[in-house]
Design goal:
The chain is an alpha/beta fold and 400 residues long. The strands form 3 sheets. A 9-stranded mixed β-sheet has the order 3-6-2-1-9-10-11-12-13, with helices on both faces. It has a 4-stranded antiparallel β-sheet with strand order 4-5-8-7, with no helix packed on it. A hairpin with a 4-residue loop joins strand 4 and strand 5.
Length: 400
């Protein structure tokens, strides 16, 4: 790497652990699609099967669920035209065609055919992400354990782009109160004013689902309600209309909450499993951190610096975004490799093993499993004895 600068992970993790236990620090977490990918549900050793797959895996599942005669032929043709077998890009093209071609046929489907194909793809996506957490310990339970384990003056705010119900399940398992912008019981209705007021006690977790959820639906009046996940969802599926959809209710209120959080004095947003490839979210982060220099983002990325293109570009543009990758980091606009230094305190080697792999010489917190466990142990929710501080064998997250 053509640079004379280096970053010492010990220094930054020492400071990070202190930030995690600071009762007055306003902390938020942005969880992306890479988080559920990290959870290994395989019963075979040395094999990783994600609880919810990445985009490549989701693309294959969607394809296998299509009709062989017409739908797969159209899917293949669109993939060839785009030069990329990616469900996000293909769904975007499918929706575009459904809006413009009318009775004219493209790859043997007219406008109605592409509209039906879009609905089928979305239905399959919903089936794939509608999963439950494993019964054994998992990163979502560790995340909630950390939040519950320390007394804070300010509530922790959790933002997520995921449609699944894993966060809700983790909180409900341990009876942790949370608020997601909905009020009511049978068909909970969305209340924008309650999001902006933020008057709930600090022990209540704020959960903001930026792209919707599989248990959101629209009633006869067109209002968004939260109920059963069996109803037709209103998730913002990955496509060309994503940005337009985020400008309408309820998504506009949720994005305003993200903006308001970042504009508050002395706030820290942690990101995990988020690649910064979502242009509308990254633009909002850039805007807010440029306006409020007292706020900061610590982004934990799974891949190497050269592979985390969107994240590193964001950190180079905005100095108060720090990106921690497997082989190095961008901190204060400086891109450099990791180099281990002198231990900052006695017995630090035990703590170092939580975030650093001596075998592969890499930083581990880009994996959501390891990241969540580090949070929990830093907050005192997990035992800190050397016997417990072993390397996690479930590494395997990808940012999305």
């Amino acid at each position: 790497m053509p640079t004379s600068s280096v970053h010492n992970p010990d220094q930054y993790m020492y400071d990070f652990r202190h930030l995690l236990t600071h009762s007055k620090k306003k902390i938020g977490i942005l969880i992306g699609a890479g988080a559920p990918v990290s959870i290994n549900i395989s019963k075979v050793s040395n094999e990783h099967i994600s609880l919810i797959p990445d985009i490549a895996g989701l693309t294959n599942i969607v394809y296998n669920g299509l009709d062989d005669k017409i739908e797969k032929l159209a899917f293949d043709a669109l993939s060839a035209e785009l030069g990329n077998r990616n469900i996000e890009l293909i769904l975007s093209r499918v929706r575009s065609l459904s809006e413009v071609i009318g009775n004219f046929k493209v790859h043997n489907l007219d406008s109605i055919g592409y509209e039906q194909l879009s609905l089928k793809i979305c239905r399959i996506i919903k089936e794939v992400v509608n999963k439950q957490l494993p019964e054994y310990e998992n990163p979502y339970s560790h995340l909630v354990s950390w939040i519950n384990g320390i007394n804070r003056d300010c509530a922790v705010e959790v933002f997520t782009t995921n449609y699944d119900l894993l966060l809700e399940e983790a909180m409900e398992r341990v009876r942790t109160p949370y608020f997601d912008g909905f009020s009511g019981s049978r068909n909970a209705f969305f209340d924008p004013s309650s999001i902006s007021s933020n008057d709930l006690p600090a022990k209540w977790i704020r959960l903001w689902k930026l792209h919707g959820s599989i248990n959101w639906s629209r009633n006869d009046k067109g209002e968004v309600v939260r109920g059963s996940s069996e109803a037709e969802g209103t998730m913002v599926y990955p496509s060309h209309i994503k940005y337009d959809q985020t400008q309408s209710a309820p998504f506009s209120s949720l994005f305003d909450r993200l903006k308001n959080f970042l504009l508050e004095p002395d706030t820290l947003l942690l990101t995990a499993g988020f690649s910064f490839a979502d242009a509308h979210i990254t633009a909002k982060l850039d805007e807010c951190l440029s306006e409020n220099r007292s706020s900061a983002i610590l982004a934990f990325q799974y891949k190497k610096l050269e592979e985390e293109i969107f994240a590193t570009k964001a950190a180079m543009r905005t100095p108060n975004i720090s990106v921690y990758c497997a082989d190095g980091a961008v901190i204060n606009g400086v891109k450099a490799p990791w180099v281990i230094g002198e231990p900052p305190s006695k017995n630090w080697e035990v703590i170092r093993s939580e975030y650093w792999s001596a075998e592969s010489n890499k930083f581990k917190l880009g994996d959501f499993v390891t990241f969540a466990k580090f949070l929990a142990s830093s907050g005192g929710s997990l035992s800190k004895t050397p016997e417990k501080m072993t390397n996690d064998n479930n590494e395997g997250s990808n940012n999305e």
